[in-house]
Amino acid sequence: MLNTTHHGTMRSREAHERARSVLPGGNTRTSVYEAPFPIYLARGSGAYVYDIDGNRLLDLQNNFTALIHGHAHPEIATALAQQASLGVSFSSPTLAEIELAELLCARVPYFEQVRFTNTGSEAVMGAIKAARALTRRHKIAKCEGAYHGSYDPVEISFDSPPEAWGSNRPANVALHSGTPRSVLDEVVVIPFNDVELSREILDEEVGSLAAVIVDPMPARLGLIEATKEYLTFLREYTRRNSVILISDEVLTFRLDYPGASTRFGYEPDICAFGKIIGGGMPIGAIGGRKAVMSVFDPSERKPDVYFGGTFAANPMSMVGGCVAMNWMTPEAFTRLNALGDYARKAIAALFEREGTTGQVTGAGSLFRIHLKQGELGNYRDSYPTPQERQALRALVGHARENGVLLSPTGLGALSTPMSEQDVDVMVGVLGEALNALEPA
To answer: At what angle do helices 95-107 and 315-327 cross, to 10 degrees?
Structure first.
């Protein structure tokens, strides 16, 4: 067991009761809601976090994959403290903005220019605005079940339940109550990894289509990799029909030194990315070739896309990002991705050894646990039954109670301070959790 001393969670329970009076449901991010209450964290160090009750936990959430160096990396912390003493935000640009942009353009083959935002959601929003400006069209195509941030068009059919699916042709399903019908009409939903049906659906809308957005290994869809055939189809189809291909790498940019699209062998027109590039600070970015990025350029005339933000390219995020990304050398990616291979193999071996229904997906430093059988190729394959969802909730809860933090969906993200010993601890706790699960 990871915790040498277990202090209980009374203070977290009390904090949640206090939060419920001033925050809807007691939280700010729906994605971190936990019943009956979440744990409240006080600090982090390396691969571990400590809650307000004094419990130490191995952190495999890493703020939903953003913290590739874990917590309180000494050089990042020093750089942020130094910058804070000089100023945390300005109306004018700083040299650190140029330095981080140069670093990113140097490592991604097709990045000639980048534009910084505050979040990954804003990066996706800006990419879509750019696509509409470049094509003078308005519709956006996305894959069923894929998450692309908090922006109305890309939230369509993100979390649709089976009763809303209809036939094998994906239906347009709103995520929020009150979503205007006009938003639904602007979105074309295609099935992930299904070339022929995607082609059929896109052909019907191609005259109005501004962009296709794809994540090559979407987390909320199950951390299932897009097939080479599917990515090749999307690239060829969009190029042939003058449609912009957007690669959403907000999460998957951590897969390799030059990002996910290079790893998967395709070049999009625009890349939306973020998370790890900010050193733990809020950030997002849009990257691509100069001809595409020119829609944001205000130097010659009014830009085709007016896009900024009060805290975009703030020096704290830029400085933190420069340090974090300089530490992520090709060798660092190789080591971390090898640790990811070790973790996925260990989890798969655990399922086999315990005779438990389950499998693990993912690549690089990411993994996701599925308590289900069968080949996983798309959103519908990975969608859990109520029994599977309940079992996964119990698994994640047991792990948390025994010192290992996983995301509620079973997603895990490794960080550079972790070792094989940490992975072994996680697998041991998961084994205890599987033994504690009641048979379905």
So the answer is: 30
- Return the CATH fold of 74-327: Aspartate Aminotransferase; domain 2 (3.40.640)
- The answer to whether the beta carbons of residues 271 and 108 sit under 8 Å apart is yes
Q: Is 6 exposed, middle or buried (0-12, 13-18, 19+ CB in 10 A)?
A: middle
Beta bridge partners of 117: 284
Tell me the pLDDT tens digit for each residue of 11-29.
Answer: 999 999 999 999 999 999 8
Query: Which residues are within 8 A (CB) of 58 and not within 5 positions of it... i.e. 6 or more apart?
Result: 2, 47, 48, 403, 404, 405, 422, 425, 426
Give the Cα separation of 321 and 315 in Å (integer): 9
Q: What is the pTM of this model?
A: 0.95
**pLDDT tens string 266-317:** 999 999 999 999 999 999 999 999 999 999 999 988 999 999 899 999 999 9
- Tell me: cis bond preceding 36? Omega within 30 of 0 counts: yes
Topology (CATH) of 10-68+329-436: Aspartate Aminotransferase, domain 1 (3.90.1150)
